[in-house]
Write a structure and sequence with these properties.
mainly alpha; 3 helices; single chain
Length: 95
């Protein structure tokens, strides 16, 4: 292999290496942004659960009525139906 060709290959490898490092850095930044947004969502959900739990103590809610609403408004084959029902039980203190 000629010296010029080897230098060309080395230059291309350096470029690829720099691109991979740049993409890695961007990926880390994107992950950090995503995790911060997820933390914000979790804080909002917990805050809303606290408010709802306080309201439920003063104004009782029938878990079956809440679950019937979920069945009427969610795709029964879709994801999240069972989780939503578990949240109803959790917030209403159903065991």
């Amino acid at each position: 292999m000629s010296e010029g060709l080897i230098e060309q290959v080395q230059g291309l490898l350096n470029t690829v290496s720099e691109d991979v490092n740049r993409l890695y850095g961007e990926s880390l930044a994107n992950n950090e942004t995503f995790l911060e947004a997820l933390d914000d969502v979790a804080a909002n959900v917990l805050g809303l659960q606290a408010v709802i739990a306080a309201l439920v103590q003063k104004y009782p809610v029938d878990a079956d009525v809440a679950k019937a609403w979920l069945k009427d408004n969610m795709d029964p084959e879709g994801q999240g139906t069972e989780k939503a029902e578990a949240v109803v039980d959790f917030v209403l203190g159903v065991e």
